[in-house]
Amino acid sequence: MEVLRTPDACFAALPDFPYSPHYVDVGVRVHYIDEGPRDAAPVLLLHGEPSWSFLYRHMIPALVRAGHRVVAPDLVGFGRSDKPANREDHTYARHVQWMREAISRLDLRDITLLGQDWGGLIGLRLVAADGDRFARVVAANTGLPTGDHPMPEAFHRWQRFSQDVPVFAVGNIVSGGCLRDLSDAEVAAYDAPFPDDTYKAGPRQMPLLVPATPDDPEAQANRDAWRVLEGWRKPFLCAFSDSDPVTRGADLLFQKLIPGCAGQPHTTIMGAGHFLQEDRGPELAQLTIDFLARSPDLTSVTPS
Asked: Which of 15, 73, 99, 267 yields a CA-CA distance of 20 to 30 A from 137?
């Protein structure tokens, strides 16, 4: 497998992002942020397509001030993590396994998962596979599609755009998924991991990996994960935005099918687009802090 590594110089002078890089080797190098007390239970922040851990810069300080350890990895192919150069090297199963191995190598336990976009598609598979490691879940503008139900037209438009656009301008794409206008420096920070198009195999391929048809290679694995989640009784909070046409309604499915959603203060965050961390990051951080305070150590609760 040919792997590219973005030069460190590309990440110089990122706005509001003073965090030291950390790395774990899972066959490829995975970058992660690790802030806050190391003896505290981790809040695992998983980003999606085509962003990276920079997305969480408005949330990390509040979570750390509240006494939590924050671990924010970059998916393989994104951020400071290694980037397989060939699109066929990016599969849903492989991304799940890379992140599962990273969590295992770091020996993270009593995890609170916050997953948005692909951070949920991957993170919820991890919860289903290694439930004992996870204490609670915050699902934010994400889902776990199986292809058994039609995807929204907004997803199909995005999928077509991602394959047809001549220049895959990552920073502009992220900005377009927000309600506020990102600054030039913020757009540049989202572009930073990708010095040229050869580094963009992951962002180009990920939209094709969403199980949108019943016969997708990963559709059955997601059905299997749903069966586990339908017995999940640990706390599960939905925090979706009001202006994301791609994931709208997935929160209602979680609330209907996952027992751990019962009695939780599920929230619609107003004035936020797909990347609600950019539009309303401090609000999402506070919701997560309050959720943790209401549901202290519950690792002894059986998930099924």
From this structure: 15
**Residue of 74, 89, 244, 251 marked catalytic:** 244
**pLDDT tens per residue, range 255-285:** 999 999 999 999 999 999 999 999 999 999 9
pTM for the complete prediction?
A: 0.96
Burial class (CB in 10 A: 0-12, 13-18, 19+), 228: middle
Q: Which of 117, 216, 251, 279 is catalytic?
A: 117
Mean pLDDT value of segment 96-120: 98
Q: Give the separation between CA 156 and CA 162, rounded to whole angstroms.
A: 10
Top CATH class, 3-294: alpha beta
CA torsion, ordered 46, 143, 93, 113, to nearest 10 deg: 30
Q: Is 149 a catalytic residue?
A: no
| 117 annotated active-site | yes
In order, the DSSP letters of 84-101 are ESSGGG--HHHHHHHHHH
